[in-house]
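can u do me a favor
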């Protein structure tokens, strides 16, 4: 009698949306905060700073959506082309494909007879699925989803970019640069920790690398803003 099993949730199942979400939020904070810190360092009015931030948010969100959609669509096109080729080979030479699948299982440690039996049973159940998973490395968990990636990246970019904007609205005029940079670095630390925890990675190291690159980007744009602000 087959025993009932519990459903396991693995972190790898989150990789599709987690990658797009973390990338979008991180880019939204870093790019918008860096832009605003650079503009603020040039001693502009708050209204001009907010205009630059809003423009950065809209442009960045659309850029992230378009970039993710094009990139993941290319991956999806490649996967579909591989599946179409595999489907044709299964129709024209099933025995060759059976031997190919059995050889994969032999390389993974099964005996030749058992590997041939497993390959035959799996192909009888879902030949294309078996070859997609074990030969091509395409699975439901890892398959490319362009629209999901685009929408997730755009939404999380917008949320991330809104935080430096909110800091600029609330910070005193004399503390614009410090307020935007400080809030952004705090949120980046929290984002790095959250992403690491969701993905099962070391929290401190993940937070440190996110904060390092965010601080470096803001420092460079602040330097550029002060340089060109002084020149004008």
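np, heres the sequence
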């Amino acid at each position: 009698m087959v025993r009932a099993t519990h459903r396991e949730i693995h972190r790898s199942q989150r990789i599709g949306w987690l990658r797009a979400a973390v990338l979008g939020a991180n880019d939204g904070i870093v790019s918008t905060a860096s832009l605003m810190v650079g503009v603020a360092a040039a001693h502009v009015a708050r209204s001009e700073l907010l205009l630059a931030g809003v423009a950065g948010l809209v442009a960045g969100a659309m850029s992230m959506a378009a970039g993710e959609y094009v990139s993941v669509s290319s991956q999806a096109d490649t996967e579909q082309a591989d599946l179409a080729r595999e489907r044709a080979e299964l129709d024209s030479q099933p025995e060759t494909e059976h031997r190919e699948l059995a050889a994969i299982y032999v390389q993974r440690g099964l005996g030749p007879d058992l590997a041939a039996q497993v390959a035959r049973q799996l192909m009888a159940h879902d030949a294309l699925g078996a070859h997609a998973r074990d030969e091509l490395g395409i699975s439901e968990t890892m398959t490319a989803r362009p629209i999901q990636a685009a929408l997730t990246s755009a939404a999380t970019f917008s949320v991330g970019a809104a935080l430096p904007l909110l800091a600029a609205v609330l910070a005193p005029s004399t503390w614009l640069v410090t307020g935007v940079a400080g809030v952004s670095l705090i949120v980046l630390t929290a984002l790095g920790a959250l992403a690491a925890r969701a993905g099962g990675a070391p929290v401190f190291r993940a937070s440190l690398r996110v904060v390092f690159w965010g601080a470096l980007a803001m420092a460079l744009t602040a330097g550029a803003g002060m340089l060109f602000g002084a020149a004008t």
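The chain has seven helices and no strands. hope that helps!!
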